[in-house]
Amino acid sequence: MRYSDSMRIRAALGPLLLTLSMAGADWPMFRGPNAAGVSSDTGLPVRLGPDQNVVWKTPLPPGHSSPSIAGNKIFLTAHEDRKLYVYALDRESGRILWRREVPRERVERLHQANGPTSATPASDGDNVYAFFTDFGLISFDGQGKERWRLPLGPFNTPMGMSASPVLAGRTLLQICDQEDSSYFLALDKDTGKRKWRIERPEYTRGFSTPILYQPAGGPLQVLVTGSYQLTAYQVETGEAVWWVRGLTWQLKPTPVMDRENLYVLGWAGEADPGQQEVVPAFEETLRKLDANGDGKLEKEEIAEPRITNQWDSLDLDLDGTLGERDWRMYQAKRAVVNAVQSFRLGGRGDMTEQSLRWKYSKSLPNVPSPLLYQEVLYLVKEGGILTSLDPKTGAVLKQARLSGAPGAYFSSPVGADGKVYTVSEEGKMTVLKAGGQWEILAVNELDDGCHATPAIAGGRLYVRTHSALYCFANKD
C-alpha cells in the first residue's frame, strides 16, 4: 500500500501528533511539522513570481529565518539598524499585525552567509517562541505581549547560531552547540523555567535543528545531530537513550525520517573521501613540540602551516593554545568522512554498527537539509545539482543540474502536491515533478535573493526573500 503524504507523516510520528495540537494546514516551525519539509496540500502553483500567482507581498527588513504559520498568523524574525524583531503577520492578507523589538546587548561573530536572525520561530498555535544569537530565547502571545524571556550566551562560534527552537508538547527545546561549553536546554513553554540542561562537552559548533521521535511503547525522544554523533534524548528527562557515531564535524542540515529509518546529512570542509589523515596522539605531539613543557601547544611551537593557518578554528576555547581537548577534536575532524547516511531508528546505547543501513558520499549539499518525499530522498547542492536517492538502498536514481538555476543554495527543498520546490540564493525557484526521475516543470524568477526555506499551508506557498514575504496560490 502506498501511503499519502499526510498518512506517511502520521505513521512516522505516531502518538507524537497528539502533542502538537496543530491544524493540518499549519506549518508551525522550521520546515513544518517535525522539520520534514512535507505538506499534504494540493493545487499549488507551478508558475510564480512577482507578477504571477501572487496573493500578497509584504516588504520586510532582512532576515534568514523562514516563515512559521499557525492559526491565522505568520511569525518571522528580522533585523534592522542593529535592532532585532519578532513579526506577526495576518495569514490571509499579509498585513503586519505587530512587531516587537528584542534586546540586543551584544553583536556576535557571524559567517558572511549567516545573519543575526537565522533561527525560525516556533508556535503552539497561540504563542510564538524565538531564538536569537545576540540574545537568547523569548516568547510572545498572539497579541504581541511578552510572556517570558531567557537571555543566553554569549556563544563561542565563529559562524553564529542558527538551530531553531522545537516544541514537544509543553516543552520547548533549544540546542546551543558551540566551540566549547555546548549544551541542550529544555524549558517549560508557558513559563520559560528550565526543566533540564544537558552539557555536551564533546560537541563543537553545529547548526542542525532537532527532530522528534516517538518509539513504540516508550517516552517521546528528541534527536539531536551534532559534531561526530547523533544522540536521542528523552524529552522529559534529558536522558541520552541511544546514539550513532560517524558523522562529520560541522552539522548544518536537519535530518529527516520515515516510520523506521533516519536520514542524516553532513558536509564540512576537508572531509570528502580521500582527504582524511591520521593525526598523532596529543601525548606524542607534546613530546615532540612542547618546548616550554607547559602541557599545551603554542603557535610558535608548531611549524606546520596546515595547523597554524587554521589556528583560530582549532583553538576552540580561545585561550591562545591547543590543549588536549582541542587536539582530540582536531584528530576527529581529520578522520571523518562527509556523507548522507541511513540508520534504523531506536535502540539503547551505541547503535552505530547495528543501525547503519547505507552511506553515500558524493555531491553532497553544505547547508540545505535533505527532503524525503513520496519514497524518494532529494539533495540539492551548490551549483544547482540535484540528486535523487532510493531511501532503501542509497542508490542514485538521478543526478543532474537544475538548468537555469545555478549558484549557491541555503534554502532547503520542500515537497507537496507531487512537486518539489527549491530556491537558490539569487532567487531562482525551481519547481520539479517529484519522482526518482524528477523533471523540471518551471524555473521562476523572484525579484530578490533568498536564504529562507519556503512554507506550505492551506494551499498556499510562502516564500521569504531578502526584502519581502510572498504568498503564492494557483490562479491559473
Report what the structure shows.
The protein is mainly beta and 476 residues long. The protein has two domains: 5-269 and 339-472, Methylamine Dehydrogenase, Chain H; 282-334, Orthogonal Bundle (Recoverin, domain 1). It is 9% helix and 36% strand. It contains six helices and 35 strands. It has a five-stranded mixed sheet with strand order 14-15-16-17-23. The longest helix is centred in the last third of the chain and has 12 residues, at 324-335. It is globular, with a radius of gyration of 22 Å.
Summarize the structure.
The chain has 476 residues and is mostly beta strands. The chain is 9% helix and 36% strand.
- Which strand order do you get reading across the main beta sheet? 14-15-16-17-23
Q: Which CATH architecture of the largest domain?
A: 7 Propeller
Number of strands: 35
| Mean pLDDT over the residues | 93
CATH class of the largest domain: Mainly Beta
Tell me the fraction of residues in β-strands, as a range: 35-45%
Spatial shape: globular
